[in-house]
Amino acid sequence: MATDGQITTPPARSPLGRARRGFRGRIEAIVVGDGASDLPQDELERRLIEFGFIEGATIEILHEGAVSRDPIAVRVNDATVAIRRREAMAILVV
To answer: What is the 3-state secondary structure (H, E, C) of the chain?
Structure first.
C-alpha cells in the first residue's frame, strides 16, 4: 500500500502492465499472448529476456508517461528500461 491512499502493488501474479508508479516486486513469469505487441510472440519474449526481464528479477516502476501512463520506465535489477504497457502485460509479477 502507498502512503497517499492509492494501492501501488497489484494482486498476486498480476501483469506488470497494470501496476502503477512506485510498484516494487519480483518477476514470476513471462507469458506472451496474442496482441501483446506488433512483434511475433517469440520475438517479444526474446527481447524481454534480453532486457533482463527474467524470472526472479526484482522490478520497480520508476516513471509513467504523461499520456495514458505509457510508456513506463522500469528498473530491472540494476538496469533501467522503457517499455510499453501492452508489452508489459506479458510480464507477470508478484
So the answer is: CCCCCCCCCCCCCEEHHHCCCCCEEEEEEECCCCCCCCCCHHHHHHHHHHCCCCCCCEEEEEEECCCCCCCEEEEECCEEEEECHHHHCCEEEC
Residue span of the structural domain in which 52 resides: 14-93
Tell me the whole-structure pTM to 2 decimals. 0.82
CATH number where 41 lies? 2.30.30.90
Residues 14-69: tens digit of each pLDDT: 999 999 999 999 999 999 987 778 888 999 999 999 999 999 999 999 999 998 88
Q: Which residues contact 71 (CB under 8 A, 6 or more apart)?
A: 65, 82, 83, 84, 85
